[in-house]
Amino acid sequence: MKARRVAVAGGGWAGCAAAVELARAGCEVTLLESARTLGGRARRVELDGRQVDNGQHIMLGAYSESLRVMKLAGVDIQSAVLSLPLQMRYAPGAGGMDFLAPRLPAPLHLLGALLRASGLEREDKMALARFSTTARWMDWRLNTDCSVDELLARFDQTPRLIQLMWRPLCLAALNTPTERASAQVFLNVLRDSLGSRRKASDMLIPRADLSALFPDAAAAYIARHGGKVHTGAKVTGLAPLPGQRWQLTATGSALGGASAGAAQSPRGAPWTAEFDAVILAHGAPATAALLRTLQLDAAGEQLATQLEAFTPEAITTCYLQYGADVRLDIPFYALLDNPATGHWGQFVFDRGQLDAKQAGLLAVVISASGAAAELGQAALSAAIAAQLAAVLRRPELAQPSWSRVITEKRATYACSPGLARPANALPGQSSLAGLYLAGDYTAGDYPATLESAVRSGVAAAKTLLASKHA
Predict the structure, then answer these.
(1) The whole model's pTM is what?
(2) Between helices 13-24 and 450-465, what is the axis angle to 10°?
(3) Which of 17, 147, 213, 369 is the most exposed place for a label (fewest CB within 10 A)?
(4) Is 313 exposed, middle or buried (0-12, 13-18, 19+ CB in 10 A)?
(5) 354-370: per-residue pLDDT in tens?
């Protein structure tokens, strides 16, 4: 039986995961990405001749689908990431805490971390133990979703524990402040990390750039299985065809580019092709805009409106280059942020401990960074350098030789309580039959993370494969 032709519009982690699953199943896959580099909101970029990521990421051992598709695409996980035990460690003397889980079976690793933790009073440790015990008893489920602030108050968490543990974890995982973040989604993340086997709570820090971590390998996998990858190709139009098939149009400075398996087209020429099905793997706003180019029925109109309701949240990463001999004592520290005093940074990573070619490069992350980004590049990087110098007690860090700030304004969406998220499959009898959705915004347990994107891409591919379109 001839393999079905499927287009995947969007070469982020969701689109790459969907395309790999389809190629594995024998479909003739065409992956299109408007940027020259695959990865979407988690990719490598070039700044002043340096290759860095558009945002520093941490993965978890619980990211089972991400790890599976990475292995499927040929990625050597052990060399691609640095695996660290669960930890929340602040620089000595910075007013924080030192929480480090030993490599013991669950839940002994959490008990060991709690008993050994410094910087927490007895009441803080009791509150943390109470939270874990109660959440397990509740099976990590709420009858009615609420904000993380409300959840923490309900569990009688101490102000210090909230400041040092729960708030930074919520910001890192959901990229949404605790006062408006979904408690149920937060519990889902904790369930699969803190509440699961010990290895699931491990923190995995990418050594390679984010595009090399999976999307580049995905492109090579697609090419090996007879598919095509077009970079520099922006999908500009969809048109329904008889039999729930679709015509897709893309334009760009070049269709093809340097990605493995890329098909070449004349520079700037429109590109049109017909497909048995299409997976839309852009973010929610871009997907809504593409749907608006169609004549939508009631179901399509409802979907487009739902996608337009997602509120974007920004993430900022500040890179600071020092001498190659500059090194942190550990791969990363948590930072106490206090915008009132100019302390915006929430985590600092020593990139040199991940990649020897980046010796002396520090990456400072600010989640939910809308207010920080308004300062501008120069002011924000100067403030962060001053924060590092003060917190780490190393005056030389106030004067980096080079610095740049990257703000992804639509890094995630606000993960608010009760947020309605669409399914991967669209209504079968609607005008959108034959289209599927993939992205971190689709229905699922997790917030907008790499794992959520990959899970959605895999689910979209499997839904398509189970339908009459494959």
Answers:
(1) 0.94
(2) 40
(3) 147
(4) buried
(5) 999 999 999 999 999 99
